[in-house]
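Re: the request from the purification team.
They wanted to know what the chain is likely to look like in 3D before they choose a buffer screen. I agreed to run a prediction and write the result into the notebook, where they can find it.
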Amino acid sequence: MRPIYVYGSAVLRQIAAPIDANYPQLTELIAEMFESMDKSDGIGLAAPQIGLSIRLFVVDASAFAEEHPELNGFRKAFINAQILERSAETISFNEGCLSLPGIHGDVVRPTSIRMRYCDEQFVEHEETFSGIVARIIQHEYDHIDGKLFVDHFSAIKKRLIQSKLKNIARGQFNADYPCKIE
């Protein structure tokens, strides 16, 4: 399992670079990302969260299959993803993040997105995602653009969590998975 980079790590604020099919050991990297996500009890993980500033993230929405049976087995890797369109309709939902242990908050996001991405074999897809899958994808997509879910908070909410963020950056937090600050 790879350690999860937490708030305060510079890689989390970088705009990630696209990759091509010749990226070294890509299949192994994707497998390690899924393993790190699973062992951390996450539902998504972006490459910057493991210290790699590349446009790659993995998603597993199957945790929501009880309420949404169509999500059973929904595990995908997204390479060089581009959001092409966002719905005007939005919804608020409580989010958390492996890179911000102990912090949760409501984030307003579009209810659906249309995007283009490559899968693990570098086959290009253009799809529309909605509901919880769209939310997870947008959260991970923010990571490859150097953004964190707390960036969506109101100014007041940001002030309220400032001491928690400082503590994370100092390494003063609890997490049930290996973490790193760099």
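For the purification team: The radius of gyration is 16 Å.
Please add any questions underneath this entry.
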